[in-house]
Amino acid sequence: MQTLATAAGLVLGGSAAAQDTPAIAAEHGVEPWSEAVLSVAAFEPVTALFRHAGGWRLVASGAVSRGELAYWTLPASAEATFEKWCAAAADTGCIRFVRFTGVAQQPIRPAARAWDTGGIYSLMARSDDVSALYDQAQALGWWAESPPIRFAFGGSDLRNVVLQGPHGINIAVYERVSPAFTAFPLGRISQSFNSMRMVKDRPAARDFYYGRLGFGVLFDFDREPAEPAFSNFGIPYNLTPQATRAATALYPRAGETGRVELMQIEGLTGRDHSARAVPPNLGILSVRYPVRDLAAYRAALRKNGVAIVYAGENVMIGGMGPTNLFSVRDPDGNLTEFYQHGD
Questions:
Q1: Which among 306, 336, 338, 322 is positioned nearest to 31, based on CA atoms?
Q2: CA 213, CA 210: separation in Å to the nearest integer?
Q3: CA distance readout (Å), 95 to 25, 35, 70, 90, 143
Q4: Nearest 10 degrees: CA dihedral of 314, 62, 258, 232?
Q5: Please, what is the average pLDDT of the chain?
Q6: What is the pTM of this model?
Q7: CATH, domain range 2-26+108-266
Q8: d(CA 151, CA 156)
Q9: Which CA distances in Å does 262 have to 51, 99, 116, 161?
Q10: Over the stretch 225-261, which tens digit does the pLDDT of each residue have?
Q11: Degrees (nearest 5) of the Cα angle 35, 36, 38?
Q12: Which of 66, 148, 283, 317 is least crowded, fewest Cβ atoms below 10 Å from its Cβ?
């Protein structure tokens, strides 16, 4: 087992890093994100992993309303259907899969490597058995950045794999071998608790989420072990001491869910896909945060110089009902949505 103080370990053990107190996000009642929105060409190749390996359940499905399509500023020719899946014992950290038709699409992160920036790189979940999940995922047609990596961090024995599915959709799964994780139910694939964005300039991205959106900081980290080590991001073994994974994790309020993680892999330069990170392109489009006082939070963001990219009132969203929502774009093109149930 490797002993690594890496960013991969830090997402599981924030106690090893300095923590900060959320500001305006907490003041306006921003809660952990309840669902991620993924654009897919077909449901089955992606949802099969969650259904068969993870035991997730379908909680809502049907046509995407004309109001939601208009919210995304899609043309009148566009249509879509959706399926919303949640982990067996959860009603948050869910995934809304959307299949668009009648409109041109391209992958958000085509043939991308971990050090390519732009577009949401992965959703994160936990597991009670990463090795078994890795085998099941391959049997279902998924691949991985690397075989499972085991390492120690902050008193925890951890195992991780980044599963790769269609359209550049990555699911990073963490198993805490010891001590036991008890904050929420696990299973083979738990509810999603974090989303990772690969960024060009981590200080600028950090300032957007912390200084402008008012999120709190769970950790900042930018160290690598001196000796080469196998990487869960597919970084060549001999380059791991030089390819520094500089990471920041943030949340609207302290807890084990609803996080956003920013990573800059310094020393490796890849392509930038930020211009592709728009609906209806294929991949991970956004995460959606419920807010107690949406109007007041939106006003606070505008005061902080945050541009609103999409906005809608009483938009009918399947499984949610009438919804007021808006979205913002970070410096790397990634969308984050905030919503409040409407009338």
A1: 338
A2: 6
A3: 23, 5, 21, 11, 20
A4: -150
A5: 92
A6: 0.93
A7: 3.10.180.10
A8: 8
A9: 29, 27, 13, 18
A10: 778 888 889 999 898 888 888 999 999 999 999 999 9
A11: 140
A12: 66
* CA-based max dimension of the chain: 58
Contact 330, 208 (CB under 8 A): yes
* Whether pLDDT at 20 is above 60: no
Question: Could you read off the pLDDT of 41-61 as tens digits, one per residue?
Answer: 999 999 999 999 999 999 999
Structure tokens at 98: 């959307």
Residue type (1 letter), 82: F
- Token code pair at residue 302: 């505008």
Do 197 and 329 meet the contact criterion of CB atoms below 8 Å apart? no
- Alpha-carbon span 109 to 114, nearest angstrom: 10
By C-alpha distance, which of 209, 200, 142, 206 is closest to 173?
Answer: 142
Strand partners, 80: 100
Cα distances (angstroms) measured from residue 97 to each of 64, 83, 182: 11, 5, 28
Report the distance separating Cα 126 and Cα 191, nearest Å.
7
CA dihedral defined by 206, 6, 107, 311, rounded to 10 degrees?
-30
CB atoms within 10 A of CB 228: 15
Are β-strands 321-329 and 57-63 bridged in parallel, bridged antiparallel, or unpaired? unpaired
**Rounded Cα–Cα distance for residues 283 and 98 (Å):** 10
Q: Please check whether residue 161 is in contact with residue 147, taking contact to mean a CB–CB distance below 8 angstroms.
A: yes
3-state secondary structure the chain: CEECCCHHHHCCCHHHCCCCCCCHHHHCCECCCCEEEEECCCCHHHHHHHHHHCCCEEEEEEECCHHHHHHCCCCCCCEEEEEEEECCCCCCCEEEEEEEECCCCCECCCCCCCCCECCEEEEEEECCCHHHHHHHHHHCCCEECCCCEEEEECCEEEEEEEEECHHHCEEEEEEEEECCCCCCCCCCCCCEEEEEEECCCHHHHHHHHHHHCCCEEEEEECCCCCCCCCCCCCCCHHHCCCCEEEEEEEECCCCCCCEEEEEEEECCCCCECHHHCCCCCEEEEEEEEEECCHHHHHHHHHHCCCCCCEEEEEEEECCCEEEEEEEEECCCCCEEEEEEECC
